[in-house]
């Protein structure tokens, strides 16, 4: 009996509706989004259908009892798309296999194109010298021997897509491309049999090579989004210590937890579910989940979030939400929703595709028909039609944007900016509002000793070397000041107090004020500042540890404001920690204590008012906002999921790359418009020439390649570094006012 897949295992039920995520195969262009979503939404009982073009995942919701997953899959099969339940591990395997296949096709096309071009050069030069017809025929047949099998293999991505589209009674951009390649190859064989001077094997294979380059790069961009699910999964504890009815601790999978379960959370473990503390006291690090920088002291009655880390004491927790109900799963759902919404911009490309294919086919057919009516032979009419198909190939239009993107991407890389999204440059040039997160974005990701300059260098070095022996977070911050990375021998740590060692016959202590014997060690400090004390004999120091503002943050914010951009700060950190940063930077519009959904709500409000928002953030809680914004940036120190969702990542401790990204993108947009204009002018001139029969397929191929070369050369101007005024130095007066948390 054939095996059947139980789809009910993949269906989620909530509030009278059912939901399933499907992986859809055969999605080749923006036009597929409209067709797939439209066909599924037409089914009775369907509430919503959203196709994520980036990872080919279709999210479908329906009213229970009115539809089912099998109906959806059958509908997709009827319109030419194969679907199956979305499983991240299977999706990654399929994507890797397809990437390998595209690379093999590209290698075959490139190898064949180089060899055929060598033969073609010989034929071209021989036609104007003394090459004999027999030698020319031999070169043509040798070219055919290379081109036909190479095109049959390398053209599979386009041929398969075109055949699937035609079977489903639809047309995509792969149809005219496949038709042009096949006609060029077929006509070349006919010309070779007829001992003609020209054959077009080189044109067909070179066309496939350039198109495969674009297809492979597009596929590589989309694969980067696959890391998102894995990064979120890394924050979730795989197992939990559940306390059963007899009071015994049992290890169970986190997926088996239910509301009301009692859990034991040991020091160093991740919290596996949202819940309320029943017994115990500890400190919780929620920075990866909420953006809060300061560890929170918790006691009975305190709420905890899944993904947080327990630091010091054992806790007993009562589960209030597990599985899909936790905060971290809410972040994942918001992320998926934001990504799906952004993918709808591809509908603009769909409009161009719907116009391109029928216009090209109609133009080529009318050309052939017109020449036949005018008395031309069938051979001449077909050759002219092939020339029209080739000369109207949208290579110049297709390269107009990507060519500038590639060159501008290199310019950005030299400025420490790495792009994650192919259209990020285009969207960066359109922004009018910049929204910054605070922690790890405006401030450096790792806390440092803020008053290091006021402490004797030798005393600070001794304290830092002693700190190397401790794993306490404040000691780790002090240890970063050590020039010599050799820990002090014989050090011992007292939990909750500090670390001690004998140095040069004198005891040294690093820890709390009481432990070090330093009175008034907890004197008033700026919000978000923690203190750790050090005593070595009669010498002592109080070290203030806090996150510090990036050295050029004020200059970068001023530069952005000077460009006419509106600057905001939205942070999950405490308002008391955000206020001094906003004041130091001169940002009047700021908010603290923001949850992920609240950040998205504000970004959506700005978008609804016509603003185009650049979001700059680094935390897990920023990931949905990064996806919802018009375009987004994240520092290299950001959490993995924030990096995966950001459209670009910048390196180093400086914030200047944010301004550089806007500058380069604005210049690149101007070049994109120029390239589009060049491509349009090319078609306006070349197409009438081809229709008039003044261009053979060979000349058409040269013209097509020439137009591509022209837009590529223009794109190279994006790499030119114009003399730009350096951003002003950070005003010294701002440093003591900032006191970032």
Model description:
With 741 residues, the protein is of the alpha+beta class. 50% of the residues lie in helices and 17% in strands. The protein is elongated.
What is this structure, in a nutshell?
The chain is an alpha+beta fold and 741 residues long. The chain contains 26 helices and 27 strands.
Task: Please outline the helices and strands.
Blueprint: E1 12-14, E2 17-25, H1 30-41, E3 46-52, E4 57-63, H2 69-78, E5 82-85, H3 88-127, H4 133-154, H5 156-167, H6 174-193, H7 201-223, H8 227-235, E6 239-243, E7 249-253, E8 262-265, E9 274-279, E10 282-285, H9 287-290, E11 296-298, E12 303-304, E13 309-310, E14 315-321, H10 327-342, H11 347-373, H12 378-391, H13 395-414, E15 417-419, H14 424-428, E16 433-436, H15 438-442, E17 448-449, H16 457-467, H17 473-479, E18 492-494, E19 498-503, E20 506-511, H18 513-516, E21 530-536, E22 539-546, H19 553-562, E23 566-570, H20 575-585, E24 589-591, H21 596-608, E25 613-616, H22 623-628, E26 631-635, H23 640-645, E27 648-650, H24 656-691, H25 697-715, H26 734-738
Parallel strand pairs: 16-23, 16-25, 23-24, 25-26, 26-27
Antiparallel strand pairs: 1-2, 2-4, 2-5, 3-4, 6-7, 6-8, 8-14, 9-12, 9-14, 10-11, 10-13, 15-27, 17-22, 18-19, 19-20, 20-21, 21-22
Helix pairs in contact: 1-11, 3-4, 3-7, 4-6, 4-7, 5-6, 6-7, 6-12, 11-12, 12-24, 12-25, 13-24, 13-25, 16-17, 24-25
């Amino acid at each position: 009996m054939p095996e059947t897949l139980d789809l009910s295992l993949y269906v989620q039920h909530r509030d009278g509706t059912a939901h399933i995520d499907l992986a859809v195969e055969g999605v080749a262009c923006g036009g597929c989004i409209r067709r797939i979503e439209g066909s599924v939404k037409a089914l009775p009982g369907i509430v919503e259908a959203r196709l994520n073009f980036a990872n080919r995942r279709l999210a479908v919701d329906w009213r229970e009892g009115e539809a089912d997953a099998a109906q959806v899959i059958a509908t997709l099969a009827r319109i030419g798309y194969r679907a199956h339940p979305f499983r991240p591990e299977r999706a990654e395997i399929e994507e890797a296999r397809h990437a390998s296949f595209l690379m093999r096709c590209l290698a075959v096309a490139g190898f064949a194109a180089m060899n055929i071009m060598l033969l073609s050069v010989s034929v071209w030069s021989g036609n104007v010298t003394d090459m004999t017809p027999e030698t020319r025929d031999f070169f043509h047949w040798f070219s055919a021997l290379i081109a036909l099998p190479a095109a049959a293999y390398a053209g599979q991505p386009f041929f398969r897509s075109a055949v699937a589209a035609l079977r489903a009674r639809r047309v995509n951009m792969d149809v005219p491309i496949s038709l042009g390649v096949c006609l060029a190859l077929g006509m070349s064989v006919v010309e070779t049999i007829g001992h003609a001077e020209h054959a077009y094997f080189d044109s067909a294979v070179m066309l496939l090579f350039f198109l495969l380059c674009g297809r492979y790069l597009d596929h590589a961009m989309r694969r980067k989004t696959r890391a998102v699910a894995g990064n979120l999964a890394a924050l979730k504890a795989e197992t939990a210590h559940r306390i059963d009815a007899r009071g015994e601790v049992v290890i169970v999978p986190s997926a088996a937890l239910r509301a009301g379960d009692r859990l034991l959370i040991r020091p160093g473990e991740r919290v596996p579910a949202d819940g309320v503390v029943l017994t115990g006291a500890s400190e919780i690090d929620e920075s990866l989940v909420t953006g809060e920088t300061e560890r929170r002291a918790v006691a009975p009655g305190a709420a905890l979030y899944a993904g947080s880390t327990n630091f010091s004491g054992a806790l007993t927790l009562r589960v209030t939400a597990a599985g899909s109900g936790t905060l971290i799963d809410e972040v994942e759902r918001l992320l998926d929703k934001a990504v799906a919404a952004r993918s709808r911009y591809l509908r603009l490309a769909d409009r161009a595709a719907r116009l391109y294919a029928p216009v090209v086919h109609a133009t080529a057919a009318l050309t052939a028909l017109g020449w036949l009516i005018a008395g031309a032979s069938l051979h001449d009419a077909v050759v002219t039609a092939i020339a029209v198909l080739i000369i109207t190939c949208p290579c110049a239009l297709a390269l107009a944007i990507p060519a500038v993107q590639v060159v501008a991407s290199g310019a950005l890389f030299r400025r420490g900016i790495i792009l994650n999204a192919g259209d990020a440059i285009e969207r960066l040039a359109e922004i009018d509002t910049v929204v910054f997160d605070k922690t790890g974005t405006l401030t450096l990701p790792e806390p440092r000793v803020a008053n290091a300059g006021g402490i004797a260098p030798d005393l600070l070095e001794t304290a830092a070397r002693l700190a190397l022996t401790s794993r306490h977070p404040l000691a780790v911050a002090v240890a970063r000041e050590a020039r010599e990375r050799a820990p002090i021998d014989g050090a011992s740590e007292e939990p909750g107090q500090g670390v001690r060692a004998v140095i040069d016959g004198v005891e040294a202590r690093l820890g709390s004020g009481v432990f070090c014997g330093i009175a008034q060690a907890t004197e008033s400090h700026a919000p978000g500042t923690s203190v750790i004390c050090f005593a070595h004999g009669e010498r002592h120091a109080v070290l203030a540890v806090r996150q510090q503002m990036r050295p050029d943050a004020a200059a970068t914010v001023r530069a952005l404001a000077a460009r006419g951009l509106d600057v905001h700060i939205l942070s999950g950190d405490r308002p008391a920690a955000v206020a001094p940063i906003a004041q130091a930077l001169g940002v009047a519009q700021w908010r603290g204590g923001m949850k992920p959904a609240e950040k998205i709500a504000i970004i959506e409000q700005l978008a609804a008012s016509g603003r185009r928002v650049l979001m700059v953030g680094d935390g897990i809680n920023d990931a949905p906002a990064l996806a919802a914004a018009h375009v987004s940036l994240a520092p290299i120190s950001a959490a993995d999921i924030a990096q995966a969702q950001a459209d670009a990542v910048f390196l180093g401790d400086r914030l200047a790359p944010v301004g550089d990204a806007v500058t380069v993108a604005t210049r690149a947009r101007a070049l994109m418009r120029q390239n589009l204009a060049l491509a349009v002018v090319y078609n306006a001139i070349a197409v009438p020439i081809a229709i008039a029969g003044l261009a053979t397929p060979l000349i058409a191929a040269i013209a097509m390649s020439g137009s591509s070369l022209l837009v590529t050369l223009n794109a190279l101007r994006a790499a030119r570094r114009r003399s730009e005024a350096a951003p002003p130095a950070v005003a010294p007066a701002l440093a003591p006012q900032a006191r970032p948390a």
